[in-house]
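user: can you give me the structure for this one chain? tokens are fine.
assistant: on it. calling the predictor now.
[tool input]
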Amino acid sequence: MQLHARKLSICIAALMLSSLSLLSADANAAPVDEGDLVTLDGGLAQITLMGLLQVHAAPFVQDDALVDNGDPADQAGFRLRRARFGFTGVAYGMIDFELSAQATHAKGMDVLDAWVGYRGLTSLSFFAGARKVPYSRFALESASRTALADRAYAVRAMAPFRQLGITVEGDIGAGIANFAVGVYNGFARAGNFHEGYTENAALAGNRFTRLAYVARIEAAPMGPVGATLADLDGGSMRIGIGGGMYFDHGETVETLGIEADLVLKVSGFHLAAEFLYDDATPADEPTSTGTIPSAVTRMAVVSQLGYLIVPERLGATARIEWIDDNTELDNAGDQLIATIGMQYYFRRHHLKASLEFTHREELSGLSIDNDSLMLQAQFSL
């Protein structure tokens, strides 16, 4: 633990020194994108420094709350939710790349994103490496730019996030619609439903899974809805619809997942909804005894409503989720989860704070005392 802490301290110190160095770069460098704070233009390549720090303070947590069940805390206190850093960039005007790492409880530091992409063709781009799979709209939204402090419980439990593989992305009708298809190392679920899928950079290769196949399509007929749900800039009405699917051809379990989503944004208001479904079936000849005994079907619906009370400054957001972790059983996994919160944007998503309360209601079985009140402070590059 001391060694991991020392390594993390060295990395943070290097990050701060790099920031100071880049901030003092040539004033005639290329303009910095609105979403970037620190960008270095090297002529043939432009590199943007990335960093994210999220700290939770939980003044009220009921006795049965557990981080392993998706709750923000086990008990009242503080939590370092995310600490990550890295860089992204463009080379030769057509090569995109990203490399980032994140502090973790188990290993100290883990590779997060590590990929390279080529977009030299008019309407097609190619990516290889560890990155988010194109499936869930809520999952694809950056953790630094969510309206509420974290993504929905259902999304974290049911959507695969980062995996190693190759992706092809393209657009239709000059950006009115876009699509993505990919092949990745297979997905591995944790034993606990709310712990979701394991993110794996596969430094040792594809050792225990087969392959997973993912596809997603989106349409925005009234103009781009943006990469974030909160409508910080306001503007006229924009509507986005999307859908995704995956097939995980696992050695012990085969899973089919289906997703559909809708987002509407206008004048600082946003409404977003997502439906998640998956069906997991034991393989005919499983390679281990740790497989599920029979087919399991899971479903969830997430809806979120938000409004910027003071443009670019003060927002209010509410989210409600319905989760059924096994449609064949009536148990404590059948839940309604409601989260309400206020957000204050000191410097858009770069520096913001949020205060929110979450209530979880078990629809069947034993009722659990797992409500929480949480304050999050965030700084991001």
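assistant: here you go. Helices lie at 2-23, 137-140, 153-158. The mean pLDDT is 87.
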